[in-house]
Amino acid sequence: MADKLVLDLETKKSFDEVGGQQNAHLLEISVVGVYSYDRDEYKTFRESEFAELEDWLKKASLVIGFNSKSFDFAVLQPYFRWKLSRVPHLDILEEIVHARGHRLKLDSVAVSSLGEGKSGSGLDAIWYYRNKEWDKLIKYCLDDVRITKEVYEYGLHHGHIWFTDKGQKTAIPVRWKQDKTVMDILEEALKFGHKITIDYLGRGEEERVKKEIDVKEIIGDKLKAFEHKSGLNKEFAIDRIFDIDVLGASDSFQEKLL
Fold first, then answer.
1. Where in the chain is the domain with CATH 3.30.420.10?
2. CB of 153 closer than 8 Å to CB of 242
3. Superfamily of domain 3-165
4. Is 144 strand, coil or helix?
5. Is there a contact between 137 and 145 (Cβ–Cβ < 8 Å)?
6. How far apart are CA 258 and CA 255, in angstroms?
7. pLDDT value at position 220?
8. Mean pLDDT, residues 41-56 taken together
9. Closest CA to 236 of 192, 159, 183
10. How far apart are CA 222 and CA 244, in angstroms?
11. pLDDT band at 60 (very low <50, low <70, confident <90, very high)
12. For labelling, which of 107, 140, 195, 243 has a CA lying 20 to 30 Å from the CA of 185?
């Protein structure tokens, strides 16, 4: 069965050690991190496990990454005899360049879209490898996989992702959006009186939280809604909504109050 994968990898060497970015194929891999949508599983592969990784890649319906065509696949290609370019591939950075005409860092897009950034740098990963700190290396790699996955899903649900330039938050339209975006579902919930659960992105150190709401009004990028848990009308920023589940018809909370 074809699977959709999110992929990121860490290297044993730096660009300085191999003579520059044109020699990415010489960097060598310490670990590859993958998220499988079919399995709903995060998994890492060391070099001795690349036969299994190869099987995953050959069966993939899509591989998703960030700068993955020119970096991750370039580093990974020497380990396989077949062309990785045969795998259907969505490179988020390539999509950003298509929309904006210039490159951005994953950290910049993640902070603006998700409220959190990367946990370190590729040089940290090299240090972990050389000091045999495998737990830290694996955690760092899978953190990058998770962030890439969530940036992809944010674009899928909203039809855009965000970056911040000189203090100004700006939307980047994406071509991989689903048929109904978050805004489409909110407008339908308002029109037809649907009760929904929103997966809401907290700010700072807050985690994402589920909130069951009835939509009352949409004003620009703000949403006014009745929150069932608190029993209060509240305002939510639409760009902080990660995903939505439609639960059915809204409760008549006005009658409950009476």
1. 3-165
2. yes
3. Ribonuclease H-like superfamily/Ribonuclease H (3.30.420.10)
4. helix
5. no
6. 5
7. 94
8. 97
9. 183
10. 15
11. very high
12. 107
Tokens of 149: 């996955």
Q: What is the pLDDT of residue 206?
A: 58
Amino acid letter, 47: E
pTM of the model: 0.92
Cβ atoms of 161 and 174 closer than 8 Å: yes
- Closest C-alpha among 44, 96, 36 to residue 68: 96
Query: What pLDDT, on the 0 to 100 scale, is given for residue 257?
Result: 42
Amino acid in the structure at residue 41? E
Residue ranges of the chain that CATH labels 2.30.30.520: 182-257
130: its two tokens:
């050389």
| CB atoms inside a 10 Å sphere around CB 4 | 17
Question: Tokens standing for 85?
Answer: 């370019």
Overall residue count recorded for the chain in this entry: 258
Residue type, 135: D
Structure confidence by residue, pLDDT tens digits, 166-188: 889 999 999 999 999 999 999 99
- Residue 128 token pair: 């972990």
Terminal-to-terminal C-alpha distance of the chain: 54
Lowest mean pLDDT among 6-10, 113-117, 200-204: 200-204
pLDDT of residue 74: 96
Give me the CATH topology for the region 182-257: SH3 type barrels. (2.30.30)
How remote is the C-alpha of 33 from its chain's centroid?
A: 14
